[in-house]
């Protein structure tokens, strides 16, 4: 079985991911509600590119896959749901999403996709709001909600009642050092 780590985010530049972490990434994008191979020459330092490069750095043994759901953090919920459903069909072992929504109404499709991924044995890590807002899918009990906390020392477990399970403090990284140059 392939051990695939799928990063779902805005735009992901395969060229920059490889330059930053030394790993190739298979890239897909959501187009008209379907996940299709992404062969566009994106060379932007987007949020998704940085997240994918960090995933490649810290989990080098996993095959890296990126799904772009839309530009500049403006992904539609339908696109995120299509990406999650593709992860279920593809058999992703780990899904990392640094995006979510703070209104939990009308998210039945997202909830069903995330629950099905969990039931299939996929580990799902989702961004929680850094300012304390309840965020989905991070708030679902079958995901691990992660937030940045500059006061945290390394990785700290937090009270999950508010949709966040883990706080991550400042850390060093070859990828982040490369971006600073």
Offer a concise description of the structure.
This protein has 181 residues and is of the alpha/beta class.
Structural class given helices, strands, pairing? alpha/beta
> What's the main sheet like?
9 strands, mixed
Q: How many beta-strand elements?
A: 9
* Order of strands, widest sheet: 3-2-4-1-5-6-7-9-8
| N-to-C order of helices and strands | EHEEHEHEHEEEEH
Helix content: 25-40%
- Average pLDDT works out at 89
Number of helices, where a helix is a run of at least 4 consecutive DSSP H or I residues: 5
Strand content range: 15-25%
Terminal CA distance reads: 38 Å
What gross morphology would you assign? globular
Runs in which pLDDT lies below 50 for 5 or more consecutive residues are none
Task: Pick out its properties.
181 residues; alpha/beta; nine-stranded mixed sheet; 5 helices; 9 strands
Describe this entry's structure for a reader.
With 181 residues, the protein is α/β, with parallel strands linked by helices. The chain has 5 helices and 9 strands. The longest helix has 14 residues. It is globular, with a radius of gyration of 15 Å.
Topology, element by element:
Blueprint lengths: L3 E6 L4 H8 L4 E6 L2 E4 L9 H12 L4 E6 L8 H14 L3 E4 L10 H12 L3 E5 L16 E5 L6 E3 L8 E3 L5 H7 L1
Helix pairs in contact: 1-2, 3-4
